[in-house]
Amino acid sequence: MLQNIGGDDDSNKNITRRVLLLLEGEWLFNARAFRKFRRIILERYISTAIPKKNLARFLLNDIIRYYRTIAVDYEFKTLVGPTTKPWATRLLKLVFSRKLLYASGLFSVAMTHEKNREQKVQVLDELFSLPVMERMACICGHGPMKQIAESYNLFLEAMENRETRIHLENLQANERSDPCYRELKDEGHRFNRELVRLLQHTFKECHPIHQAVLF
Fold first, then answer.
1. Cβ-based neighbour number of residue 32 at 10 Å
2. How far apart are CA 155 and CA 183, in angstroms?
3. How far apart (Å, rounded) are the C-alpha atoms in residues 43 and 171?
């Protein structure tokens, strides 16, 4: 995880393990060792020479790479791979849970602006120690998160309902007009719009995160 960030030896599996350890990792035992390792990874991403005004862009780029990688891999795993997996549930996870995790990474990196190197590491260490919804509320406030939370709860309720989940898992690729799937997918569009609105609301137009996620 530490030696191969980028380059030919940084496999999809390696990227996933490293980024997920940061964004949603939790310890089962030896909390101190886990937290120490997470901080070491952050220090690997954030150079001692980084200017105060800069975002932690090395980390930001890897978070973006992770999300785009799983989005591309979705097609392979559901349509092309040797053992195809249920497309609807995997797509809905991309639309909701994976996207929320990704957004929490972007918003967290945005908080590194105008902080020195030690402060960048510290703020990310503290934010990544929080569950995803708490992390977003810590950055954006509970009020602005209301619509995000409502949409996400609808997704969670659907995934926890055994009948709904089995129904979605049995859908064929040509059944995208299915009412159950369509309702959740449409909610996903609203969820996406709310995340964009939240980014614009939380960080002013001049904040470098807006350019950094594009270029």
1. 8
2. 10
3. 45
Residue, of 12 and 192, whose pLDDT is higher: 192
Residue-wise pLDDT tens digits, 180-211: 999 999 999 999 999 999 999 999 999 999 99
pTM, entire model = 0.93
Question: How is residue 195 written in tokens?
Answer: 């995340």
The answer for residues whose C-beta is within 8 angstroms of residue 56's C-beta and 6 or more apart is 45, 46, 50, 109, 112, 120, 124
5-19, 51-65, 130-144: range with lowest mean pLDDT:
5-19
Quote the CA–CA distance of 204 and 74 in Å, as a whole number.
33
At 128, which helix (H) or strand (E)?
helix 117-128
Q: Where are the domains of the chain?
A: 12-212
Cα 107 to its chain centre, rounded Å, is: 10
d(CA 62, CA 53): 20
- The C-alpha atoms of residue 114 and residue 55 are separated, in whole angstroms, by 8
Please, which pLDDT band fits residue 124 given cuts at 50, 70 and 90?
very high
- Within 30-153, strands assigned E span none
Reduce the DSSP state of residue 43 to 3 states and report it. Answer: helix
Model pLDDT, residue 110: 98
Q: How many beta carbons lie within 10 A of that of residue 164, not counting itself? A: 16
For 46, other C-beta atoms within 10 Å of its C-beta total: 20
Helices (H), 25-78: 31-45, 57-75
